[in-house]
Specification:
about 20% strand; seven-stranded mixed beta sheet; about 325 residues; 10 strands; 13 helices
Length: about 325
Amino acid sequence: MKLNAEQVVEILRAAGESTRLRLLALLAAEELSVLELCRILDQSQPRVSRHLKLLAEAGLVERFPDGAWVFYRLAAKSPGRFLVEQALDLIDDADPVIRLDADKLAAVRAERSMDAQAYFARNAARWNEIRSLYVDEAEVEAAILRATGEGPFDEMVDLGAGAGRMLTLLGKRASNALGLDLSQQMLNIARDEVSKAGLASCELRHGDIFRTGLPGGCADLVTVHQVLHYLSDPANAVAEAARLVAPGGLLLIADFAPHDHEFLREVHQHRRLGFEDSEIVPWLRAAGLQLENNIALPPSTGEGLTVKIWTARRPQSVAAERTAA
């Protein structure tokens, strides 16, 4: 999309200030909350919010509230994104201010990871019980079985396998199944569950949902079950999951619809309080998948959470890239 001269000037004016350029560099790495940006930049919330407002008005970043928090990310389809990326590429990697910001971002990530790992370690043994606190799990699983179909599947990959529930639920429909998770405690629970289910062809492996290292198009069924709300960059996790889907294969995502249960951030380490269709569906389409199912399962009581299930398929005509991530 071509811009007129005045539009280019407005974009350059918005980005052409040191704090705003630092914000763009941080948001190029991942979506971040206002409080996290304030912490990294060591600036007040009003000041940071003012800079973010200017960047949003110029179409360079997107603002999205999530419960009591507000997150920002680079605008995916902004006509100015190319200019932003070019400007960021010009910055020397050794620039002391940018390096310090990157170090502080790494510290925020590490703290998040430590909190999450500690939570998973504390709760691994009763993970399925915790997952059942807010929804009728039997209803959710029945909907997942209907959405995936009978198969059979040659290769299944479950990202963020947790206690292995998707593997035990769907593994008998797959010739081979692989579950990845960063928590060794969760993997140990999953191995026990998989063994009890008699799934000899199911493998559990320590792995990162953002960088699986698996070849593109390696699976005809990929599942991401109640994982995205823990992640700092759910869009990239969806992109990596979609990359693994073979032509004709299916990606299933199950997570919560938007809600206002703020205590889940503090008590259960949820980073996002659910997802709108307007987020998930464009991520799937951007990855070359076609939406098949968009299912909402409301809670049995007014206090519960609505579970969403999205399935999307890669067209048979699209050749999958078979290079490792």
